[in-house]
């Protein structure tokens, strides 16, 4: 269940020596066609990395032959020289694949403000190309890890066509997008315009709603490529649903692996006057350090939820708010509800439901109880 689940894709991960740990650090995902339609979304941070600048230009025509990714260095805030390094990386892969350089995307992740060692990276690209395989998705997913403790992969198959994906991210997780690199693949026959629309819809309810620590990265990139190798053109709604399922799966994996987290929290806001209101309320709760501390301490402190709701401009009546923790309605009508001792927060999964009773729209925000109460030996703090 990864980027090589769909037909028409090969991938590989290899070790080029970019990481002091000696772990894999270069990945390539190649689209074997017959189609090379593509779409992508990127960080909205005004400080963005060289590979983001390059890849925005590369995907502008809706075509990508491949993407090369490295961990061990973000190539961010490295000036013209860093941009030249991204160009050189794309050129190397294009030469090896016989592709047009403008159809190669580049992604980097790691420490900001450090030049990449090109004498190691370019041979790493060569090695990855030599190892490309239709079974190489797992290796590619491992090679893009930074402070991740596990690789992140997902995939679904529907009526003869598939969507696959891989992601990395464990810190600086906050919209827009999160601090992530994501590569998504499909063998469905979908043109570039439809891919772009589907990707933006899927990201809106998945990666854009994953909010761990409120920090936005400089390198966020989500790339979607279609090989068309299945020969099947799915109904647009069915394709969006499958793509969204994969994106939500990967987003949940990102939150589960967030640095220092002991709980994965889903904040469901229902009964909102608009989807926008639901998102605003959910994000405010997710970014409350007091709320996170309560969950870490096993305390279903609904007062901290209400206080977070109260600073938003969402439509609600303070005397008509309901809050539930793992199905126990501890707050009813803005007042004391069921006995909070009935709530069990001993498990890793926590679901908080807020009913605003102001309409029919809803949204779910994914977060965790990030505590920062540990030290990772030789951690590769990264974007």
From TrEMBL:
The keyword Metal-binding does not apply. Pfam families: ArgJ. Transmembrane segments: none annotated. The keyword Transit peptide does not apply. It comes from the Bacteria. Its EC number is 2.3.1.35, 2.3.1.1. Keywords: Acyltransferase, Amino-acid biosynthesis, Arginine biosynthesis, Autocatalytic cleavage, Cytoplasm, Multifunctional enzyme, Transferase. Heterotetramer of two alpha and two beta chains. Catalyzes two activities which are involved in the cyclic version of arginine biosynthesis: the synthesis of N-acetylglutamate from glutamate and acetyl-CoA as the acetyl donor, and of ornithine by transacetylation between N(2)-acetylornithine and glutamate. This is Arginine biosynthesis bifunctional protein ArgJ. It comes from Tessaracoccus bendigoensis DSM 12906.
């Amino acid at each position: 269940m990864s980027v090589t689940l769909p037909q028409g894709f090969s991938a590989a991960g290899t070790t080029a020596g970019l990481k002091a740990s000696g772990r894999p650090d270069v990945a390539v995902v190649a689209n074997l066609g017959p189609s090379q339609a593509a779409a992508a979304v990127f960080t909205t941070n005004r400080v963005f990395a060289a590979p983001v600048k390059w890849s925005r230009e590369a995907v502008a025509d809706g075509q990508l032959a491949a993407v090369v990714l490295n961990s061990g260095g973000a190539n961010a805030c490295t000036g013209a020289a860093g941009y030249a390094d991204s160009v050189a990386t794309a050129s190397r892969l294009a030469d090896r694949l016989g592709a047009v350089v403008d159809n190669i995307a580049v992604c980097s992740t790691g420490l900001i403000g450090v030049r990449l060692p090109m004498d190691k990276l370019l041979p790493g690209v060569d090695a990855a190309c030599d190892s490309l395989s239709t079974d190489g998705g797992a290796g590619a997913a491992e090679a893009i890890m930074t402070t991740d403790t596990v690789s992140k992969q997902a995939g679904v198959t529907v009526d003869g066509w598939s969507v696959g994906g891989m992601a990395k991210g464990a810190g600086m997780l906050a919209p827009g997008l999160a601090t992530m690199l994501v590569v998504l693949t499909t063998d469905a026959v979908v043109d570039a315009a439809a891919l772009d629309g589907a990707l933006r819809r899927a990201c809106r309810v998945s990666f854009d709603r994953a909010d761990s620590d409120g920090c936005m990265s400089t390198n966020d990139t989500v790339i979607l490529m279609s090989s068309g190798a299945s020969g099947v053109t799915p109904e647009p709604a069915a394709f969006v649903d499958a793509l969204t399922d994969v994106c939500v799966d990967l987003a949940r994996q990102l939150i589960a692996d967030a640095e220092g987290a002991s709980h994965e929290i889903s904040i469901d806001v229902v009964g909102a006057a608009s989807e926008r209101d639901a998102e605003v309320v959910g994000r405010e709760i997710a970014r409350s350090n007091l709320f996170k501390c309560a969950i870490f301490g096993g305390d279903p402190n609904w007062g901290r939820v209400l206080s977070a709701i109260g600073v938003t401009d969402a439509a609600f009546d303070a005397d008509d708010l309901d809050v539930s923790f793992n199905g126990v309605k501890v707050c009813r009508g803005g007042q004391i509800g069921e006995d909070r001792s009935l709530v069990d927060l001993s498990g890793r999964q926590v679901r908080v439901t807020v009913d605003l009773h102001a309409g029919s729209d809803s949204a779910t925000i994914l977060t965790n109880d990030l505590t920062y109460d540990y030290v990772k030996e030789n951690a590769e703090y990264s974007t």
